[in-house]
Amino acid sequence: MFRIYRVSYCISILKFVGQTSILFKQRLTPLQALPKAKHYCAYQERCHSEVKEKLYSFGLNKYDVEILLSRLVEEDYLNEERFAVLFAGSKFRTKQWGRIKIKHELKQKGIGDYIIRRAMKEIDEEDYLKSLDKLASQKWSSLKSEQYMSRQAKTLSFLMQKGYEPDLANKAIQQIRKPEAL
């Protein structure tokens, strides 16, 4: 019994050691890393921080990472403005995020304020308000069993978690309430 435990313990240690060595196994030269980085950027739009993290995972030093990043920018594999515009549009359309949440996520990715403002201009105001109204009415109707104040607070909280501005969210809730008051 003791031997079986000891053998399984040793095997689990070997598995653990093997897994950690896999993390540091990829030590690539800059010439080997460049095509991988190009493929990584061509597959999906990326920001500088994501690509930088990937290059460091290849075991490259800071100097090589900076050279490869500048080369990727020169060859138009990496463009932060293009990334920000696509990121903002896709998060708005697919997850129905508001501007505040999108701005926060872009800042987390290290995107500059100027580029963030340009990306926010790509979101159509009419579509933005329609999405806000739709989310507000869905949430409001899902809370029919709640008391009025609780219903309003929960709907407002939901919209703010989605990243919509508090004043716009309040206006959307007031629009929903008008037909009920009549």
Poorly predicted spans? 5-22
The average pLDDT score comes to: 87
Termini separation: 78 Å
Proportion of residues in β-strands: under 5%
Rounded to an integer in angstroms, the radius of gyration calculated over CA atoms is 24 Å
Q: Secondary-structure element order, as H and E? A: HHHHHHHHHH
**Total number of distinct structural domains:** 3
Q: Give the % helix.
A: over 70%
The number of helical segments is 10
How many strands appear in the DSSP assignment? 0
Which key terms come to mind for this protein?
3 domains, 182 residues, 10 helices, 78% helix, elongated, mainly alpha, single chain
Task: Explain the overall architecture.
This protein has 182 residues and is mainly alpha-helical. The protein folds into 3 domains: 2-74, no CATH class; 80-121; 125-181. Helix content is 78%, strand content 0%. The chain has helices spanning 2-23, 30-43, 48-57, 62-74, 80-95, 99-108, 113-121, 125-142, 148-161, 166-181. Helix 2 packs across helix 4 (62-74), helix 8 (125-142) crosses helix 10 and helix 9 (148-161) packs antiparallel against helix 10. The chain is elongated and about 65 Å long. It starts with a helix and ends with a helix. The model is unreliable at 5-22 (pLDDT under 50).
